[in-house]
Write a structure and sequence with these properties.
This protein has about 450 residues and is an alpha/beta fold. The protein has two domains: about 10-140, Rossmann fold; about 205-435, no CATH class. It contains 15 helices and 16 strands. The strands form three sheets. It has an eight-stranded mixed sheet. Helix 9 packs across helix 11 (about 285-300). The chain is globular and about 70 Å long.
Length: about 450
């Protein structure tokens, strides 16, 4: 029996906003985060709204059906399915596998009446030359693994609101299969452990099953989105050639999420640990080499880089940015399910949620102090501190000190990994992380 698709309403609403416009809709994100399913959901909605089957064309370029197709072959295939005097809806999955694909896309817009939807698992899809070729006639929709609220829904739970004896509105999570009730923190611990890759919803959640699934995702990303892409370059310009070096960099970045990191510090770590290719060479990797490998990981959406922002000077700084991983479960797969660094994992999850909510995110610098996140969305600015707990006086002072120094009227928020007794601290808003993650946007 065909498995029904879980709806990703936020992404579907965004796609619907741009439907039947001249803009090309390009959905990017790590492999297996749900891009193909999103296209299927969009097709399903079109059919339910009366769009005839012959006006909908779906192509997945990882299918053998379209293996080796180039721009000319893609154009001919679409032309052969054109319905005269009718709008075509083109859904092109993993289009980066088609050589010179922008040439075909531009021709479609000139020659056909069509609405175009594209997915890609590598930021190279929109690298300089391609984005220039498309001349700004596209909108990029960044897709991430499941949010915490989506994870709850995909796992067969439902969120309910209730009023405490003190009159406070709180959440509880009920499992639909047996009506057992959990706190949001109970489910959050599972989310932090196993992550939000959508495929987890189709398996029995256990460490063994999730490890197998994440191993497949990681291997696919590395083999297909990094080495395979680099192998298509001319030999003289290939950069990603050493799998041992790549793995060491992946492990370093995963182990140092939320820590100030430089390319030089990564190179020093590798030199300190010794050989990167089983004894074949012992050279300290050059900064440019490390930069190429880190860039490939960023392009494949395994990690995200966050720049530092001088709040007083109102400028971005070039050094000591931070890196965050795309999914907490993937980090546990790489480093082991140790339950360590909970504070930094929470910080990582908050960063991803801010991205989902459409914020541009930077790390704030205020003199010698640091604000975890400066989040901007249009004219809105939000300063955020993330902490595992607000119980200890020393912790409270550490989190409050940089916020006190910011002399402007923008809101300031502290997100805590443990329940909070009060909704404010020193005049700043304080929220439990599970409740903040469940807030309706």
């Amino acid at each position: 029996m065909k498995r029904s698709l879980h709806r990703r309403e936020t992404y579907l609403r965004t796609l619907s906003t741009y439907m039947d416009t001249d803009l090309i809709k390009i959905i990017t994100g790590i492999r297996r985060c749900g891009k193909s399913s999103l296209l299927k959901l969009m097709v399903q909605d079109l059919r339910e709204n009366g769009i005839p089957e012959d006006q909908i064309l779906e192509m997945n370029f990882e299918s053998h059906t379209f293996s080796g197709m180039n721009a000319e072959g893609l154009y001919r295939y679409v032309a052969s399915h054109e319905v005269k005097d009718k709008r075509m809806y083109l859904f092109l999955d993993e289009l980066q596998r088609v050589e010179n694909w922008p040439e075909a896309i531009n021709s479609f817009q000139v020659d056909f009446d069509c609405d175009i939807y594209i997915t890609g698992s590598n930021a190279y899809l929109l690298s300089g030359e391609f984005s220039t070729y498309l001349s700004g006639r596209y909108v990029e929709i960044e897709m991430l693994p499941l949010s915490f609220s989506e994870f709850i829904r995909f796992q067969g739970y439902v969120r309910e609101m209730y009023t405490t004896p003190s009159g406070e509105e709180k959440s509880r999570i009920r499992r639909k299969s047996d009506n057992e009730v959990f706190t949001p923190l109970d489910i959050l611990n599972t989310y932090l452990r196993y992550g939000g890759m959508p495929a987890i919803s189709s398996i029995k959640i256990s460490q063994e099953h999730v490890l197998t699934l994440l191993d497949g995702i990681y291997s696919t990303v590395v083999l297909k989105d990094i080495f395979e892409r680099d192998e298509r370059r001319r030999p003289a310009v290939r950069q990603i050639t050493d799998p041992f070096l790549l793995k060491k960099i992946v492990l370093f970045l995963a182990d140092n999420i939320g820590n100030p990191t430089s390319l030089h510090s990564i190179g020093k770590m590798i030199a300190a640990e010794g050989d990167v290719d089983e004894g074949k060479r012992k050279n300290h990797p050059a900064v440019n080499t490390v930069k190429a490998y880190v860039g490939a990981l960023l392009d494949s959406f395994v990690f995200y880089e966050v720049k530092r922002f001088d709040i007083k000077g109102k400028e971005h700084l070039k050094t000591q940015g931070k890196y965050y991983i795309v999914d907490p479960g993937l980090r546990n797969f790489l480093l082991g399910f140790t339950g360590r660094d909970v504070g930094r994992v929470l910080e990582n999850v908050v960063f991803l949620e801010l991205r989902r909510r459409g914020y541009d995110v930077a790390v704030g610098k205020m003199g010698s102090l640091e604000v975890d996140f400066v989040a901007r969305r249009g004219e809105e600015v939000l300063y955020i501190q993330v902490t595992q707990s607000m119980v200890e006086e020393s912790t409270r002072e550490r989190e409050l000190a940089p916020l006190r120094k910011i002399q402007n009227g923008y809101p300031k928020l502290i997100i805590s990994g443990t329940p909070v007794l009060s909704g404010t601290e020193d005049g700043f808003s304080v929220k439990e992380v599970s409740e903040w993650l469940l807030e309706e946007e």
